[in-house]
Amino acid sequence: MHDEFQRAFSCVTGAVKINYEIHGNSIPHLHMHFFPHYRGDQFEGGSINPKLTVQPVYSAGEFDRIRHDFVETLLSWSNC
Predict the structure, then answer these.
(1) Low-confidence ranges of the chain (pLDDT < 70)
(2) So what's the pLDDT on residue 80?
(3) In angstroms, rounded to a whole number, what is the distance separating the alpha carbons of residues 45 and 42?
(4) What are the residue ranges of helices labelled H in the chain?
(5) Which among 34, 14, 15 is positioned nearest to 23, based on CA atoms?
(6) I need a labelling partner for 17 at 20 to 30 A (CA). Which of 3, 43, 49, 61 fits?
């Protein structure tokens, strides 16, 4: 599943690397954060420091488009 996620997320976002955090200890669900890296971004070659990130990260509607495209990509691959 990890490889499918990485491939789908990279395909949709154009990221060259992805850092992620997964939490799920306190209540029965998974809580995930995904941090795409892009060639030439300020964090290339290192970890992302949220304190240095300028807000907003995405333009209006961009996050919703990425989320939609990511879910659609995963669903289409799961039908194979």
Answers:
(1) 1-2, 78-80
(2) 43
(3) 9
(4) 2-13, 62-78
(5) 34
(6) 61
CA angle 65, 39, 44 (to 5 degrees): 110
* Residues 2/10, Cβ–Cβ less than 8 Å: no
Question: 11's torsion region: left (phi>0), alpha (psi -120 to 50) or beta?
Answer: alpha
Q: How far apart are CA 10 and CA 5, in angstroms?
A: 8
Query: 19-46 b/e with 16+ CB inside 10 Å = b?
Result: eeeeeeeeeeeeeeeebbbeeeeeeeee
Long-range contacts of 47-50 (CB under 8 A, 24+ apart): 47/19, 48/19
